[in-house]
Amino acid sequence: MPKRGGLPAHRLAAAECRGCPLHENATQTVFGKGAATARIILVGEQPGDQEDKQGEPFVGPAGRLLDEALTEAGIDRDTTYVTNAVKHFKFTRTEGGKRRIHKAPDLRELTACRPWLLAELHLVRPDVVVALGATAGKALLGRSFRVTKDRGTLIPLPDEDEGRNEDVERYVVATLHPSAVLRSDDREAAYAGLVSDLKVAARASRKPH
C-alpha cells in the first residue's frame, strides 16, 4: 500500500493488485471515484460488466438508477465518492461465452480487497458510508450484517477504520444495491425504499461536527 500520494497513488497501486485470482479474468481494476473531500461514500459489491470495461464504478444500469435515487434524495453525486468492496469483476460466462454473468465475491476476495476499502475510508474521511447491498454491508460491519434487519438506520462505523477521528462519530447507512431494485418484482416500492435510506444518509451528512 502506498504511504503517500493520496487517492491517485492508491488508484495506481490498485491497478497492479494481484491479491486474489480475480485479476486474471477481469479487464482491469475498478477503483473508487469521486470527491476526495466527500461527506458521503457509497460502497457497492463489485464492478459489473460495464464498469469492468470502462474502468469506473457505477456507470452501468445500476449506476444510472443510483444517480436518479441520489438526486431524489437531495444528494449531488458530484460531491460523493463511489467505490466497491471488491475492485475486480467476478463473473461466469454463458454457454457459448458471449455474455458475462455476475458472480458474488467470496470471503477470500472480500478480505483481499479490504485494505483498499479501508484506505479509501481513511483518505476521504466521510461522515457517512452508504452500504449498497449485503456484500458491502458485511465488508463494513461484519458477517452478521443483514440488509433486511439493519437498513435505513445510523450504525456507528466500526473502529477498524484506522483513519477515524475519535472526536467525530461516523456512520454506516445500509440499503439495497441498485441492481436489486432493478431485479425486484415491485420495483417502485424497492426504489422508494432506496431513496428513503439515502435521505437518512443525506440528513446525517449535513449535521455539524
Give a topology summary.
Blueprint: H1 6-14, E1 33-34, E2 40-44, H2 49-54, H3 61-72, E3 81-84, E4 91-93, E5 100-102, H4 107-124, E6 128-132, H5 134-141, H6 147-150, E7 155-156, E8 171-175, H7 178-183, H8 187-205
Parallel strand pairs: 2-3, 2-6, 6-8
Antiparallel strand pairs: 1-3, 4-5, 7-8
Helix pairs in contact: 1-4
Describe the protein in words.
The chain is an alpha/beta fold. The chain has helices spanning 6-14, 49-54, 61-72, 107-124, 134-141, 147-150, 178-183, 187-205; strands at 33-34, 40-44, 81-84, 91-93, 100-102, 128-132, 155-156, 171-175. Helix 1 runs antiparallel to helix 4. The longest helix has 19 residues, at 187-205. It starts with 5 loop residues before the first helix and ends with a helix. Residues 161-165 have low confidence and may be disordered.
Give the neighbour order of strands across the main sheet.
Answer: 1-3-2-6-8-7
What is the CA–CA distance across the termini?
A: 30 Å
- The total of beta strands comes to 8
The major β-sheet equals: 6 strands, mixed
Globally, the shape reads: globular
Fraction of residues in helix: 25-40%
Rounded to an integer in angstroms, the radius of gyration calculated over CA atoms is 16 Å
Q: Please give the count of helices.
A: 8
**Overall SS class:** alpha/beta
Element-level helix/strand string: HEEHHEEEHEHHEEHH
